[in-house]
Structure formats: structure tokens, C-alpha cells
Amino acid sequence: MPIVEIINQIEYNREVFKNLLMFKTEKEFLWRPKPEKWNILEIVCHLVDEERDDFKTRVKHALETPTKELVPIDPEGWVEQRGYASMAYDKTLRDFLEERKASVEWLRNLVDVSWNNIVIHPELGELSAEQLLANWLAHDYLHIRQILRYQYQYLNAYSNFDLSYAGDW
């Protein structure tokens, strides 16, 4: 997929996330499909952190300082370390949408960069800047799927109806 198309889709996904995540009640964004699963608030906090501290930072790293070691990140640990449970949902969603807007603007303003630059990931080995960009988009798709699944599960949990007429999930 050409880089410009990946960037376009990352930009379009901002609206997808906005439409999926706005106007959630507290009951909705705190609901968990299982006790060990993240709730929607935690997913949105994760999206902000991934936007800021993972994908944008690592693409930038690959483009500007590919020979330097990647700074370790801990997305699973951030849930507790950064106090996701105490975050304000609406503000966190706005923060994510603003971060995404800034990320797209940054990506669109890149000039004369080498998308073939390679960084060494401690577990995955060599990753190009372009591969990191494609994974940024893939990460969006994984969370869009997750949010849609949660919405279906929430409807199923709180609906008094058999939803099998809609089809198999």
C-alpha cells in the first residue's frame, strides 16, 4: 500500500474512532466484557499513549535516528502506571483526537525522508519506518474491531432480545 494511502487511512480513522467513541455513557465506557478485559475508557487511554509514545515516536525515530536504540515502552503496564481508571473519558477522547490530528499533520509535512530506514526492535528484529507506519494503521484496525465487538457484546448483555436474527458475530 503506498505511503500516502496509509497516511490517508490513518487520517480517516480519526473520524471512525470519533464516531465510534463519542457520546458514550459512563455505564458504556466502564463496562467490561470480562473482568480481565479493558473497558472502553482504558482503550481510549491506550490509543492516546500509543499515538504519542509509540507509533508517532517510533516512526520519527526510524526516520531521524535509525541507528539509535529504541526507547522501551510498556503499553500493558501503562494501564496502572498512568492511572487509566482515573482518567476523564471525554477529555481523554479529545486528547486522542487532537493527537491524531497532529500526527497526520506531521506525517503530511514530511519531506525527503527515507521510509526504508531500519530500526532494530528487541523482539521483532529489523523494522523499516514504512513497516512501522503500516503497523500504526493495523493497530487502528485492531482497536476498531475491538470497539465494535465491545459494542455488540454490550448490546447483547443489556438487550432483552435474541440477536441471532442479525447474523453470526
N- to C-terminal distance: 29 Å
Q: What low-confidence regions span 5 or more consecutive residues with pLDDT below 50?
A: none
- Average pLDDT rating: 96
Radius of gyration: 18 Å
What is the helical fraction, as a range of percent?
Answer: 55-70%
User: Going across the major beta sheet, what is the strand order?
Assistant: 1-2
- Beta-strand segment tally: 2
What's the quaternary structure here? single chain
Strand content: under 5%
Shape: elongated
By helix and strand content, what is the structural category? mainly alpha
What is the string of SSEs from the N terminus onward? Answer: HHHHHEEH
Enumerate how many helices there are, as a single number: 6
Describe the main β-sheet briefly: 2 strands, antiparallel
How would you characterize the overall build of this protein?
The model has no long low-confidence stretch (mean pLDDT 96). β1 (118-121) and β2 (125-128) form a beta hairpin. Strands 1-2 form a two-stranded antiparallel ribbon. It has helices spanning 3-21, 26-30, 40-64, 75-81, 89-108, 129-158; strands at residues 118-121, 125-128. The two termini are 29 Å apart. The relative contact order is 0.18. Helix content is 63%, strand content 5%.
Summarize the structure in short.
By secondary structure, the protein is mainly alpha-helical. It has helices at 3-21, 26-30, 40-64, 75-81, 89-108, 129-158; strands at residues 118-121, 125-128.
